[in-house]
Amino acid sequence: MNTRKTIRDGEFITLIAFLMAMVAFAINMILPAFKDMTKDLGLNNETHIQLSVSLLYLGLAIGQVFYGALSDNTGRKRSIYIGLLLFMGGCLISFVAPNLTILIIGQIVQGMGLGAPRVVTMAIVRDNYSGNAMGRVMSFIMMIFILVPTISPYLGQSIILLTHWRVLFLVFIGLAVGMLLWLKIRLPESLDQSQRTSFSLSQVYKTILFILKTPAALGYTVVLGLFSSAFIAYLNMSQQVFQIQYDLGKQYPLYFALLSLSIGLASFTNGKWVLRYGMEKLSKVALIATCTIAIPTFLWIWFTATQPPFGFLMFFMTIVLYCFGILVGNLNSLAMKPLGHVAGTGAAIVGALSTLVSVPFAIWIGSYYAGSILPLVGGFALFGSLSLALFLKITSLKQTLDYHPH
Q: Whose CA is closest to 77, among 164, 13, 19, 24?
């Protein structure tokens, strides 16, 4: 079935972009609420609330492993329905949560549900477009997708100021219902019955084993996971750093949005540069640039025990987030390169494994926050260095890597 026969490209692109952006909405809209959540749940400090973001990512990692295979069996739309319903259930749990433990359970369930739109949207695009047409459509999708992190903290803060932080979860439910109805009414199923396969946990298991035994796939996945540790820690700490440490108050969403645009700019420029320089060279440069700025900055703050000017923090974060934007797409593609024969399930598992690597380290980085940006800078210095070391090890063995394990 060709979706393009019954839905215009513009509507298709917008629908897929908003489905993909559900994760960004669920995370970024809640960041301005950390202070109120800490107070209402009777917590000692906001560091504990960071777990709500980290463990949503954990749920996302768990969930997305299965949705690729499930969509090959039940169809694309039905698997997204299941994910959105699970997400709404998690939102209800968080909405009524009397304590941090129940809130986190709700966040994990939300993440497990969001694995569906995160994974299956890519399969829908592949079902309907190919070659240059697919590249063009994905470019437009990413343009819309990139805007979400810039506006969602504003939306979250506005809701909190007008009502209560718990209302955010009702807004998420409303958004999910709207996406579900839009998907059901306007988008035809893109996977014909004749093309569907039986759902097999053994196939998921075999794909995991294949990735674990394939040096390039596993290596680049771990590199992505290590570097993402610092990024997730940044998300966790951003409200405390901007709103409290630098006393920006209600201006926090503005600066968060500006920094998010650097990731979007990186995605845009990477699309132009990758054909000329290649994924490996761009990734190497991004990792070296991160270490070049993060290590001296960490040492400066460590030895002088000073708080850098806010302008310098913005400069530092712009550079490292730009590098993150370069790395995400390229490392994913490099990890997927040996997995062409299991592309759908492979993409889901690469995403899941990299997230499982990053979440524990992100929680560890965030646990050191105590009114200084030292842990934030240190996260990029340490995990940027580890990522670079592993990346160089993989590329140095490029001529001898066996992509097809015995």
A: 19
Say what the pTM is.
0.84
Q: At what angle do helices 76-96 and 100-128 cross, to 10 degrees?
A: 160
- Per-residue pLDDT of 296-317, as tens digits, reads 999 999 999 889 999 999 999 9
Separation of alpha carbons 374 and 390, rounded Å: 24
Question: What domains sit in the chain, N to C, each tagged with a CATH number?
Answer: 9-190 (1.20.1250.20), 200-399 (1.20.1250.20)
Q: How far apart are CA 14 and CA 135, in angstroms?
A: 15
Q: Which residues, other chains included, contact 177 with Cβ-Cβ below 8 Å and sequence gap of 6+?
A: 88
Whole-angstrom distance, CA of residue 356 vs CA of residue 362: 10
| DSSP character at residue 1 | -
Q: Which of 367, 368, 384 is nearest to 319 (CA)?
A: 384
Burial class (CB in 10 A: 0-12, 13-18, 19+), 333: middle
Q: How far is CA 238 from CA 112, 255, 330, in A?
A: 24, 10, 25
Residue written as token pair 């979860």: 169
**Contact predicate 152/24, CB 8 Å:** yes
Q: Compute the distance between CA of residue 76 and CA of residue 392 in angstroms, rounded to an integer.
A: 38
Distance CA 319, CA 328 (A): 15
Task: Give per-residue pLDDT as tens, 59-108.
Answer: 998 888 888 778 878 888 999 999 999 999 999 999 999 999 999 999 99
- Exposed, middle or buried, 185 (CB in 10 Å: 0-12/13-18/19+)? exposed
**317 contacts 259 by C-beta, under 8 angstroms:** yes
| Alpha-carbon torsion (297, 298, 301, 302), positive or negative | negative
For 231, the enclosing helix (H) or strand (E) is: helix 215-239
The 10s digit of each residue's pLDDT in 45-71 is: 778 888 888 899 999 988 888 887 788
Coil/strand/helix, residue 69: helix
Beta carbons of 305 and 201 less than 8 angstroms apart: no
Instruction: Report angle CA 266, 271, 276 to the nearest 5 degrees.
Output: 115
321 and 262 Cβ atoms separated by less than 8 Å:
yes
**Cα–Cα distance measured from residue 262 to residue 364, given in angstroms and rounded to the nearest whole number:** 25
* Pair of tokens at residue 37: 């959540």
